[in-house]
Automatic annotation (TrEMBL):
Entry superkingdom: Bacteria
Position of the signal peptide: 1-20
Naturally occurring in which organism (per UniProt): Tardibacter chloracetimidivorans
GO molecular function per UniProt: electron transfer activity; heme binding; metal ion binding
Location of the Cytochrome c domain: 35-126
Keywords: Heme, Iron, Metal-binding, Signal
Listed InterPro entries: Cyt_c-like_dom, Cyt_c-like_dom_sf
PROSITE patterns named in the record: CYTC, PROKAR_LIPOPROTEIN
Protein's UniProt name: Cytochrome C
Length: 128
């Protein structure tokens, strides 16, 4: 009986440890060496990503066809399918239909570098 009481005392500590293990990884998981968030913002405006998405820091347009991109750095998945990693986001921004068949987002006229810049911009949005 005494061991059961001691075990029950440790349940809150065990639950706290489990919750701490669920914390998101540090922000450096979205680090994009060589990419420029400022060039990414310019590319977003040039190709018109805001026509379909609300994007923090992009004043106009604020389309509602696609999901808002605010909070993207905190999401576990991109489009509910892909791991939210810099390489996957850059590939997705450039050619979403090849990665998620049936998605409404079209392939975008972007170079690999521009897609990386856009990913850098999208990842740093919450830091503003």
């Amino acid at each position: 009986m005494r061991k059961k009481v001691q075990l029950v005392r440790h349940v809150p500590l065990l639950l706290s440890a489990l919750l701490a293990a669920c914390k998101p990884l540090p922000d450096d998981r979205h680090h994009m060496p060589g990419a420029s968030a400022e060039r990414g913002r310019e590319a977003i405006e040039r190709v018109g990503c805001g026509s379909c998405h609300v994007i923090p820091g992009i004043r106009w347009p604020k389309g509602r066809v696609g999901p808002t991109l605010g909070g993207l750095p905190r999401q576990a998945l991109i489009a509910g399918k892909l791991p939210n990693r810099p390489d996957e986001l850059a590939r997705f921004v450039r050619d979403a239909p090849s990665l998620v068949p049936g998605i409404n987002m079209p392939a975008m006229p972007l170079s690999s570098e521009e897609a990386r810049d856009i990913a850098a911009y999208l990842y740093q949005m919450d830091a503003r």
